[in-house]
Amino acid sequence: MNKVRLSLLLLGLLGLSACGKKEEAKKAGPSGTPVSVVVAEQRTVEQVEESVGTLDSPADPVVAAEVAGKVLTLKVMEGAEIKAGQVLAELDPQDTSLLRQSAQAEVRRMESVSANETRRLERMKQLREQGFISQSGLDDVTAQATSAQNQLASAKAQLALAERNVGKTRIVSPFDGRLERQFIVPGQYLKVGDPAFRLVYMKKLRARLPFPEELAGRILPGMEVHVSSPGVVGVRNGKIDEVRPMSGATTRSFDAFAVFDNPGWKPGATVTGAVVLGRHANAVVVPEQSVVLRPAGKVVYVLAGEQVAQRVVQVGTKQADGMLEIVSGLKAGETVVVDGAGFLTDQAPVVVSHQEKTPGKSAVAPASAVVPASAVAAPVSAVFAAPKK
């Protein structure tokens, strides 16, 4: 009987202990949501408008034959990199050499004629002083001497042209660039003006960027542009060189052309151009995933001890490194939740797992991927329903 009572007593004590633990757990409440945090920082951000366009060369002339002749040799092939003054092709110089020899002979003949007429004129002047010839006779000789001098000048000009044409039998590049297309083959006879090569100027490139017509008054020549190309590391800075309307029956837009130094890119590539419309100094920025969507609007959760406080914010432009401008609702130096923000509510308990490192501060954030605020989508975490308190 005593053993039974002892067993019942032990069972009672165990039950009381379990109830006590349940009560303590109930009083302690649920553990906080694990989150990572970051400190809001200040930097200068850029307000930009982006467009996807194509690259071309600001100069791609067709080099034509300047003299007639048969193509003897080609010195370069399509796709070759070329230098200014480099010989691209040679034409048969025989015809131009013969023309030069003919011009040289004509110059020598006219030099003799002019010298003879000059000596004759001097004799006629002496005879006129002595009264042996009339003034009209002297005038005729003077006119003949002047005519001979003019013919000599014309012959010398023809000789200079013939000598210049001899040099034109060598087709040369007018600048550093690339041979884009070849129109001629050895043995082909070229007339003056026949196309021989198409060249592409490679020191500078031009980005053609289409924009809708509502931006026509905001994008102007002289504005800075950040140009990037898919699969290519780095961003090039250029200037809007020209704005050209492209209105038509099916489209109402305009093209902006940005010229920049070529870092080794090829014409024809697809590029993204970000035109800088303005800069915001001392703007507050946080990671994009810190901003979530709630019924009150876009919010961030500011760390306050072991809880968070919900702040409604107005966002601006997104930066290339994933940071998002906060126009109002947050101050620099405040700590906001990054990972886990989509699962929080106002005054929710949290447990900080680690603090994120913000990207290094710079005078101007890289803007190759800066997008307008209107294009910033809510983070994926914003699609989850907020848990009830």
What does the model show?
The chain is an alpha+beta fold and 389 residues long. The protein has 4 domains: 32-46 and 280-383, conserved putative lor/sdh protein from methanococcus maripaludis s2 fold; 51-59 and 202-278, Efflux pump adaptor protein, beta barrel domain (Elongation Factor Tu (Ef-tu), domain 3); 60-91 and 171-201, OB fold (Dihydrolipoamide Acetyltransferase, E2P) (Beta Barrel), CATH 2.40.50.100; 93-168, Helix Hairpins (Orthogonal Bundle), CATH 1.10.287. The chain contains 3 helices and 22 strands. The protein has helices at 2-28, 94-130, 135-167, and strands at residues 33-39, 41-56, 62-64, 69-74, 81-82, 87-91, 170-172, 177-182, 189-190, 195-201, 204-212, 224-228, 236-245, 253-261, 270-287, 292-294, 297-304, 307-312, 314-318, 323-328, 335-337, 350-355. The chain has a 6-stranded antiparallel β-barrel with strand order 2-11-14-13-12-15. The chain has a 4-stranded antiparallel sheet with strand order 3-10-8-5, with no helix packed on it. Strands 7-6-4-9 form a 4-stranded antiparallel sheet, with no helix packed on it. A hairpin with a 2-residue loop joins strand 16 (292-294) and strand 17. Helix 2 (94-130) runs antiparallel to helix 3. 25% of the residues are buried.
